[in-house]
Design goal:
single chain; about 100 residues; binds heme C
Length: about 100
Amino acid sequence: MRIILTIVSLAALTVTAGFAADVTAGQATYNKSCKGCHGADGTPSPGIAKMFPGMKALSSSEAQATSDADMKAIITAGKGKMRPVASVTGPAVDNVVAYVRTLKK
Ligand code: HEC
């Protein structure tokens, strides 16, 4: 019985670790695939902001109020004027969302 419990809890640990988002990897993805429009700190540059009126700073409480699920959908399916970011898939989506959370002011 004890052995079975140990195996079950080890498996649970592995699964949890497997799902833990990697903020450092997320930052690399952000710099490559998001920064050009959203800016290093989540604030779009004036030129970009002019091109896409209505774009919110990712650091803003409004953008941060977006749930993880909705943020993932924005990345993979797009939203309004933002096209889906096809290069970001699988765990990279979770990682980049985790990084965007660190931009919160
Ligand atoms: C080509 C420019 C561009 C790129 C690249 C881009 N975005 Fe966006 N993003 C936008 C625009 C424009 C909007 C506003 C969409 C709208 O509401 O019309 C937006 C909106 C968002 C929002 C919702 C915030 C809001 O304004 O409501 C999130 C979250 C977001 N982007 C995350 C990301 C992430 C993460 C990446 C990288 C994986 C990324 N974006 C890449 C242009 C871009």
